[in-house]
Amino acid sequence: MSIKQLAGQTVYYGLSNIVSKLLNYFLTPFYLGILTRASFGEMSNVYAYIPFANIVLTYGMETAFFRFAKKENKAHVLGTSTISLLISTISITILLLLLREPVIDSYAGKLAGLNGHPAFYTYVVFLMAFDALTAIPFAQLRLEGRPVRYAVIRIAGIVTTIFFNVFFLVICPKLYASGHHWVPDLQSGSDQTGYIYLSNMLGSAVTLLLFLPQIRNIEWRFDAALWKKMVHYALPLIVVGMAGMVNETFDRAWFLPQFLPGNNMEAKKEVIALYSANYKLAILITMFIQAFRLGAEPFFFKQAESGNPQKMYARIMKLFVIMLCFMFLFVSLYLSIWKIFLRVPFYYEGMRIVPVLLLANMFLGIYYNLTIWFKLTDRTRTGAIITIITAFLAFLLNWWWIPVMGYYGAALATMVCYFIQMVICYVLGQKYYPVPYHLPKLITYIGLAVIIYYVFNWLNANLLSPKDIYALKPLPFAVATLLFAAYGWFIFRMEKKEFARLPVIGKFIR
Question: Where in the cell is it found (predicted)?
Fold first, then answer.
């Protein structure tokens, strides 16, 4: 597979990912206009825990599937991994349902607004189960290079979710008010978050149903010896994933509730809502990262079989970082426009964390790109150690900074942890699987993007719009556009030959 093929697959994966993320993205202002601050904080808290559960439910089997499908009988790997996930998902789902009452009555359950609403918990459990059961079918499509079907199924699930959100939260209240009492009464707002969870569960269920023809064609054979090897490879990835989630979502799930001063639970829910709403603005950079991972992971495993793949990895990293830098500037320079997404003025206060979180996600994206070395060399335990170190650091920094700086401390801790995680992974990778990354260029491109943002922010705060740095005014917009264009010109001059080699755009460059 060439870079042209990788680009083609990433476009499809990117399209499906971007469309699905954007659809979810626009659900956020929809929710912000309907839910109270506390309710949005409760929902954000619940969704912060779901990634942890997904890691446990899939236990690295997706990556193990990619690895062993290239080394063993593909049909046996597919059957074994699917049967393993099916049995484990059913077992864990039953266990979680049995633990329903203790969970919803705990402090975490009360913070998430689950106490008194056992149905909410049930919806979330089945949502996670359905997502776990689609992990291998989605991985199979990626391995077989079928991005169009991948995109169709992914988007169909999201569209279903949105349909039910609109039906329950917009249409049902209007129908009920006009006398149609066969629909649920959602005018009071007490059960709105529950119907959001139900909508997501129905979207995941539709996704699973669309995979049934593909699942039926699986060779239902369980190879115990193969399964042991796959689990041995995958188990450290659980630690990698869990520790990674400490940085990604634990700030909303646990750090902020625990380390914010005071005991007012409602006030903490509102801070979580403020933080989570602004965190969503950083999703614009994570869209590209996720799309890249979906296309790149199977590509990297296939490329490893060719001669000297390291040069290809270095080239991909450079292009990847350039794109991340452009996206960082695209969001951070135009926050006066992106604030429209937040709708409610209460949430504007938190916009100062957005550039910090964008930079954090840039470091995370680079880290994901670097992790290929321990996946290719079967040193997944090393990856686990790296993430455990940064997870411990995340705990210390949040414990230190949140009481002093509030939610800004959580954002800053996220950025520092991702930076250190990226650096450690790079250093160890160069030891065990050297890749000739263009380090001076990478540092220059990232550093210049950050400098441009802070120069613009200083100009805005002191000269252009000192009374309101997020006001949508012509002069700040013009300066932001000029700086963005100047950065683009600099990158083009530095990488003209590289861009000329790319598919599609290369033929327009002389």
Answer: Cell membrane
Mean pLDDT of 64-71: 87
Rounded-to-integer distance, Cα 40 and Cα 61, Å? 33
Q: In the predicted model, what is the mean pLDDT of residues 86-94? A: 97
- Contact between 438 and 316 (Cβ < 8 Å): no
Contacts of 150 (CB under 8 A, 6+ apart): 12, 13, 16, 138, 141, 142, 294
What is the dihedral angle through the alpha carbons of 300, 304, 305, 307, rounded to the nearest 10 degrees?
120
Q: Give the residue from 17, 57, 61 showing the smallest Cα distance to 154.
A: 17
- Half-sphere exposure (Cβ direction) of 17: Cα atoms closer than 13 Å: 21
427-453 pLDDT, tens digit each: 999 999 999 999 999 999 999 999 999
Within 10 A of 506 (CB to CB), how many other CB atoms are there?
12
Place of tokens 């997706």: 62
Report residue 19 as tokens.
Answer: 């469309």
Under 8 Å between Cβ of 249 and 410: no
Q: Are the beta carbons of 238 and 59 closer than 8 angstroms?
A: yes
What pLDDT was estimated at residue 295? Answer: 61
Contacts of 129 (CB under 8 A, 6+ apart): 57, 89, 90, 92, 93
Query: What pLDDT does residue 20 have?
Result: 66
Reading the block at residue 244, the tokens are: 């990674």
B/e letters for 20-31, b = 16+ CB within 10 Å, e = fewer, are bbeeebebbbbb
458 contact partners, CB below 8 Å, separation of at least 6: none
Q: What is the distance, to the nearest Å, from the Cα of residue 304 to the centroid of all Cα atoms in its chain?
A: 26
Task: Summarize pLDDT for 254-292 with one digit per residue, the tens.
Answer: 999 999 998 899 999 999 999 999 998 887 788 777 767
DSSP state of 254: I
- Helix axes of 3-34 and 37-58: crossing angle, nearest 10 degrees: 140
What are the backbone angles phi and psi of residue 473, rounded to the nearest 5°? -125, 155
Per-residue pLDDT tens over the stretch 193-242 = 999 999 999 999 999 999 999 999 999 999 999 999 999 988 887 877 78
Output b/e per residue, 461-488; b: 16+ Cβ within 10 A.
Answer: eeebbeeebbeeeeebeebbeebbeebe
DSSP annotation string for 80-111 = HHHHHHHHHHHHHHHHHHHTHHHHHTSHHHHH
